[in-house]
Amino acid sequence: MMRARHCSLLLFLTPVAADAVPPPTPADLAGCEGSAFVVDKLVCADPALKAADARVRVPSADQSRLLDAASDYVERQDGWFQRRNRCAFADDQPDCLRDAYAERSAVLAALVHDAAPDQSGQCGKMAVRIGTLEGATIIHDNSRLVAVGLPKPRSSWRPFVTADPRGKGWRLRRLDGAHIDCR
To answer: Which terminus of the chain is less hemmed in, N or C, by CB atoms within 10 Å?
Structure first.
């Protein structure tokens, strides 16, 4: 009985953002007209975020095909939308969203990037081409995008893959802690 009272008290005292409505799932993303979702309200109120949203919301057919073929170090579109929606609960919501859209823009651009002029390298035992694009380290093998690593942002947003310099190479680390060393 006493334990139930303590749990109720803790739930009552837990802080919640005043206007945070649970974010939508990718299948039912609301538009700017009459949306109740914090993320959509923020995106729709900021012209730069609204433009970024229009660029990344629906990848082209080629980008979608390439996303499907990409390695496990490239986040799928629905996973990115779910993480982007968590910016609704961040203290720095606009900055979180800006960094989320910057990451996704870099990933979508890397999908169609010509890796031919990039330098030869190696990730683990895999031969790759390593280049940079829009501040991101991009890595392709002969047939697919292997990874897009970004520096850690200043906001609460965390990229799916970060590229940490290590001597003459990088350690690519996913959010789940998996990593691969590249040089």
So the answer is: N
